[in-house]
## 1
Amino acid sequence: MTRSLLVALVLLLAVSADAREYVRSGRVHRAFLRSSGYPHGRPGYVADHQRPLCAGGSDSVVNLHWQLIAEAQVKDRAEWTLCRRLRALVAQFDQQWRVTP
């Protein structure tokens, strides 16, 4: 098994079926802001998901943390690439293993 195929399989297994479609909750975001002591936001920081939603992270207060804006931009680019690849892998897997009657 090639390394890239092995990595693809690990990523595919790490993504739950629920992670294919995810919704961010404003209520969770506001609860995080209040619980962190910055109910109106923190200057120079953004509230960020520690584990991306597309990779099975939960949209919950425990998965949020403060991150510097510049660091968040770099992390977001990497997450967009990861999520795009995961969606492509899941679509390819679904197409290949779809059961036809």
## 2
Amino acid sequence: MAPAYLDNQLERSRRNLGLETIDLFYLHNPESQLADVSAQVFHERLERAFHILENRVEEGKLRYYGIATWNALRVPDGAREYISLSEVEAMARSVAGPGHHFRFIQLPFSLAMSEAYGLANQIVEKKNVSALTVASRLGIAVMGSATLYQGRLTHSLPGFIQNTLGMKTDAENAIQFARSTPGLTTSLVGMGNAVHVAANLKAALLPPARLDEWTRLFAKRET
């Protein structure tokens, strides 16, 4: 997150893409630094990064920025890699005021990794809420990664998932689950060939699942 490194990467991206302005620039897995430094040092580094990114917004080189995480927003409060989204947003406000440009986060969200909805690990107004809830309250858009959990959700899903979501294949049901999530703006799906692209687009051609159907997947089931 060193400012000089971020500057280098932003300029390289602008050159590679042939663009004057990058729409969205992520700090990638910033929580990994918490394995080696204290929370105070981490927050100081993050604040310096926000300063340089806000400066690049003013220069017209960047429109928005955010953090792309893996564990930070889906582990319990107190875990080593945990990040408070409210604290990060407050940091952005301290750097650039209420009109700051920290407006996006990315985190894994799928049938196998649903903590952003089901785990109340964030605190806002002295209440424990999920990452999706606090992001919505703060005006931060959420992108979900690992929609197919690196291909592991394309087969052998329990039958009740298909019965609930009604798609034809396990991959389609996994995509339908993620894309129907309240508060999730985008579900990212990795695809290696044209056949996969065509297959995965089938879910996108249908309406998302109704909320009452979607939440039924979180109901306790007898074993």
## 3
Amino acid sequence: MAIFYILNSTGTQLVSRGSDQFTPYWTQPVWVDSQDHLPMWIESVWQDSDGTWFGWYHHEPAGVCSGSNLTAPEIGAVVSYDGG
């Protein structure tokens, strides 16, 4: 049986699993080992044939220019060996 995954990014990473897009999901937060790039928004994920997940995110750090809301977006990569 195939598992359908949805990765949600709202600044906090979540992964939901179900049998298809129409059934109830089991949702859990995704743990990251560094808080340096939070909040982050996962933009894309690719699963290798060995099961490893590679993800790409963007992060918008605050406080880049004092006295304004300007930011300098950063792009980064994450990897998971346990499906998120």
